[in-house]
Amino acid sequence: MAGLSGCLSGLSSGDSGPKPLELLHAWSNGDGAAAIEALFEGFNEEYPDIELSSEGISGAATQNLGQVVNERIRNDDPPSTWQNWPGAALTPYVDSNALGDISDSVWSENDMESAYREGPKEQAKGTTDHYVSVPINIHRINNLFYNKSVVEEAGVDPTSLSSPADLVSACETIATETEAVPFTQQTKSPWSTVQLWATVLLADSGHEAYQNFYEGNPDREAVASALDIVSQLSEYYPDDSSTLELTGANAKIINGEAAFIHQGDWAAGAYPDDFAYGEDWSYVPFPGSEHSYQLNMDSFPYAADNPTPEATEKFLRYCGTKDAQIRFNKAKGSIPPRGDVDPSEFPQFQQDQIEDFGNVDHQPPSMQHGLALAPEQRTNVVEAISAFIGRYNVESAADEVVSAVQ
Amino acid sequence: MDSVRSWLRRRIDSIQTDQQVRTDGGTASEVSQGERRSGLGRYLDSDAVESAPFWLPSFLLVGLFVYGAIVWNVIISLTDYEGLGDPQYASFDLENYRQMLQETGSYSFTNAFVNTIVLLVAFTLICLAFGLVVAILVDRDIRFENTFRTIYLLPMSLSFVVTAKMWLWMYSSNGGFVNRALGVVGIGPVNFIRNPDPNVQLAAVVFALIWQFSGYAMVVYLAGLRAIPDEHFEAARVDGASIVKMYWRVVIPQLRTATVSASVVLMVFGLKAFDFLRALYGNDTPAVGTDILPTYMVRVAFGDASRIAYGSAVAVVLFALAFSIVLPYLYSEYRRGAL
Predict the structure, then answer these.
(1) Where are the domains of chain A?
(2) Taking all residues of chain A, what is their mean pLDDT, rounded to a whole number?
(3) Cα separation of B248 and B229, whole Å?
(4) Which residues are CB-neighbours of A5 under 8 A, at least 6 positions away?
(5) For residue A336, what are the contacts with CB-CB under 8 A and spacing of at least 6?
C-alpha cells in the first residue's frame, strides 16, 4: 500500500515533495515482522513528517534481499537503508564504497558512542575504522536450552556442566536413563551444525582460538577437536534429524521428547506460554563458553549516495535510542545493543540474558551469520561443514574447514 | 541450315514448356511477369517478408532475451565480475574455466559435474525401463486401464516443491514410509538425506525423481505401442513367438522414436532438478552427493559471495551439456524429415 501511494505521488509530478525514506528488510512474518512494525510505530511517533516506505523481501533467509540490494546499488539507485548483518558481512559493500560514514551524523548523537556495548560497536564499523551501520539487536548463539523435567528425570544438572566433554557425558546419561533424545538437532540444512561447531570451538579451545580462526590463522588441532565433539554429539541426535527443520527439532524440547538443544535465543521465542521459562524449560550458556556472548546482530547500514540523506540519518539516530531498541527487541526476543537500557522492560528470559551479557569477557561475532567471516570464507566454511554432516569424518573435514579461511 | 532449324525447334519447345497449361485451358503467365519485376519488388512479395508481422516480433524478442542473454552470459564468464560494481569488459581470459578444474574440496565443480552426469544417466535409463514395463502392462487390455494411466501420470503434474516435501517425509527415520517398509524386512532405519555415503544421497534423489517421471515415459511408450499395427502382434503370434520374444523382437525395436524423444525430455527434466533439491534441503547447499551443476551455479553466483563471472562460466558448461543432449536429437529428427 505504501509502495503504491509512493508510485502515485511520483506520477502526479509538479511538486516533487521529499522522497520517502526507503527501507528494505526480510522480516516478513513472525517475531521479525512484529519487531519491525513496532520500530516503525515508534519512529512515526517521533518523526510524524517523514514518510517511510518499507518493503519486505522474504525468501531464502536474507539471500533474496541481498540480491535486490546488490542490484539496486549496481544501478546507482540504493535504498536509504536495509537489513544487513554487520561486521565482515558488509565487506563487499565497503570494498565498492557503497556505504557512507555516519560517525558524526549518527553515532555522535544520543550518547550512542558511550552507551553501545563493545562488540556491537566493533561490528557496526564493518571492516572499516568508522561507523557505517547501526546495529538494532543482539541474538546470542551460545545457548543450551533444556527441558527441565527430562534432565531431572535423568538426574543431570545442566548448570554443573563446564565443558563440551561434560555435555557429551550428560547426553550419555540421558540416553541410558530416559527414553528421550539427548540432543535434538536439525541436519537437513547445514546452518545449525555450523553454529554448533563454532560454539564448540569457542567453548573447547577458548576465545583466542575462535578469534584466530576467523581472522585467518586457524589452529588445525582446535578445529579438529571441535569437529570431534560435534561428531560425538551427533550420536545423540534424533533419528530423523536429517529430515527435520528447526521447528521440528525444537518441538521435541516442548513435547518433552528431547533434553537439550543448542540454538540462538530465537529458539526460546518458539516456546508457547504454557511451556514456562524457569519451570518447564531453562537454559545455560553452552558449557565451556560462559566467558563469551556469541553475537548475531542485524543492523541498518547507511547507503552512500543516499536518496534521502537527512531522513535516513534521523531514522538511524532513532534506531540508536533506548526507545527504539526496547520496542524492537521486546518483539524480537533479542537484547538491545545499548548497555543502558532498563532490563525490567523485558520478559524474564531476556532480563537474564542482559545480565549474562554484563558478565562476559568476550563478545565474539557469529560465523554462521556472516559477522565474523567475509562472504566467500563463510560459504567455504558452510560447505565444509555440510560435507561433514552425515559422514562425520573429522580428519578430512578439519582439512577443509582450515583451508576454508586461509 | 539443319543446325539452325533444330536450334529454332528447341527454342519453341522450351517456350511452350515454360507456358504451363492452366486448368481452364489458358496459359499461366504470372510467373514470367513476376520475374520481370524489380529485385526489391520481388523481395517484398516473398513469403518471408509478407509473413513478417507474424514471426518478426517474437523472433526479435526471443533473439534478444534468449540468445542475446546467452551470448552476454558467455561474455561475462570471460571477465572477473564479482557482483557489485560493473563488469570490466576490457580484458577477457579463461581464468574462470581454469579455476573450475582446479577446485578441490567436497563441494568442487568436478563433484557437481560428475553428480549431474550420474543423475542424468541413471534417472533417464531407469525411468525409460520402468516406463516401458508399465506401458506394456497397461497396454495388455487390463481393466481400469484409464484409472491406472492417470495414477501413474499424476506425480508428474505435481510441482517439485510438493514432491520434495513429500519425499522428505517418506525418507524420515521417524515413521517415514520408506524406512517403515525397510523395517519390515529388517533393514534400517536408513538416513537417506544425509547418508554418510554420498552415492546413497544421490540414489535417494534419483529414486524420488524416477517416481515422479516414470509415468511420463509410460505415456510416451503407450502412444508408441498403440501406433504399432495389430497385424504385427498377430503375425508374431501365428509364427509361434512367446510373449517375451514378441515384445523383444517385434515390438520394442519399433519404439525407437518414442525412446529417443522421451529420453531427451527426461534428461531436460533431470537438469531441472534444482527446484527439488532446493526444496529438499531448504537452502542452497544440498548434501555433497546431490550437489549438481544447477545448485552449484546458483550457489556461486547468487550466494553471499556473489561470484557472478564464475557462476556464468558454470552456466556455460551447463548450457553446453543441455545443448549436447538436444542437438543430436534435433539433428536426427531433421535427417528423418520429422522437422
Answers:
(1) 19-139+296-359, 143-291+374-405
(2) 88
(3) 16
(4) none
(5) A137, A138, A322, A325, A326, A328, A329, A354
Looking at the DSSP bridge assignments, the partners of residue A299 are A84, A135
Q: What is the DSSP letter of A19?
A: P
Pick from A188, A370, A389: CB nearest B282: A188
How many A×B Cβ pairs under 8 Å? 110
Q: What is the pLDDT of residues B69-79, one digit of tens each?
A: 999 999 999 98
Is B303–A187 a contact, with Cβ atoms under 8 angstroms apart? Answer: no
Nearest residue of A to residue B288, measured between CA atoms: A387
Please give the residue of chain A at the shortest CA–CA distance from B197.
A391
The CATH class that applies to domain A19-139+296-359 reads alpha beta
pLDDT, tens digit, 9 for 90 and up, residues B103-139: 888 899 999 999 999 999 999 999 999 999 999 888 8
Which region holds residue B108: left if phi is over 0, alpha if psi is between -120 and 50, else beta?
beta
Residues β-bridged to residue A25: A56
Interface of A with B in 62-81 (CB under 8 A): 63, 66-67, 70, 73-74
- Give me the interface pTM, i.e. the ipTM: 0.81
A143-291+374-405 folds as D-Maltodextrin-Binding Protein; domain 2 (3.40.190)
Nearest CA in chain A to B83: A70
| Cα–Cα distances in angstroms (integers) from residue A149 to residues A155, A350, A363, B21, in the given order | 10, 22, 32, 104
Contact A66 B304 (CB under 8 A): yes
Q: Which residues pair with A54 in a beta bridge?
A: A23
CATH 1.10.3720.10 at B106-335, yes or no:
yes
Asked if residue A239 has pLDDT above 60, the reply is yes
Which phi and psi (to 5°) does residue B245 adopt? -65, -40
- Which range scores top for mean pLDDT: A27-36, A55-64, A361-370, B25-34? A361-370
β-pairing, A81-82 with A21-25?
parallel
Question: What part of B 153-172 touches A (C-beta under 8 Å)?
Answer: 168-169, 171-172
A108 CB contacts (<8 Å, ≥6 apart)? none
**Residue A179: other Cβ atoms inside 10 A:** 10
Q: What pLDDT digit, counting tens, does each position of A13-59 carry?
A: 334 567 888 999 888 777 788 888 999 999 999 888 888 888 777 66
A230 vs B: CB within 8 A: no
Answer whether A19-139+296-359 and A143-291+374-405 agree in fold: yes
d(CA A292, CA B99): 39
